[in-house]
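Notes, p. 3: input format for complexes.
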Amino acid sequence: AQPMIIAVDGPAASGKGTIARALARHYGLPHLDTGLLYRAVAANVLREELDPAVEADAVACCDFPDSLLDDPGLRTDEVGKVASIVSAHPLVRAALLQRQKRFAQQPGGAILDGRDIGTVIAPDANAKLFVKATPRIRAQRRHSELRKAGIDVTFDRVLADIRARDDRDAKRTDAPMRQAADAALLDTSFLSIEAAVQRAIALVEARI
Ligand code: C5P
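Output follows (208 residues plus cytidine-5'-monophosphate):
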């Protein structure tokens, strides 16, 4: 059988990560959350007290071991925001490109989630999903997660951050976030996690 490559793209808090992990379990495929690569660069920039807007500074932070990707410190909103700044630099994207392509091309197949998997990293993927939800619903999800984690932040702040990140990711010139022409659209706005995962499996099944 052909190795199966599944590409899952979409904005922050759309559900793409949860869906990608569930698909990986369902199909027994290795999974890479590519946002973690940009988050690792961002964490290095923050630790070295560099300016994420300066391309050369960000590029100098692109060498890191895979083990850094397991650091829970990568998952904060601050790191996510800086990740969306460093990710706009073409030389940062170039520095992380082969790592992602290699992961996608491993013999048994793979599933990757991010912003440009279906368009740039794995344009020949067997199945592509673009996962979305309204900004308000994504902000509600993120807000309740943050509140549960004991982080005191207003809904309006979270919504503004989500909109700013969407804007940066969709408007950059190099590999902007967009739905590939051959990607299936999955709107999770009014779906439970279980329903979204079932729908994702059905969409993949219809494409392989
Ligand atoms: O998905 P996550 O929120 O972890 O991604 C953090 C940031 O990394 C995104 O806002 C985006 O700017 C960047 N990113 C990207 N391309 C990817 C994955 C993430 O530019 N494939």
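The pocket of cytidine-5'-monophosphate is lined by residues 12, 34-35, 38-39, 80, 83-84, 87, 114-116, 165, 169 (CB under 6 Å).
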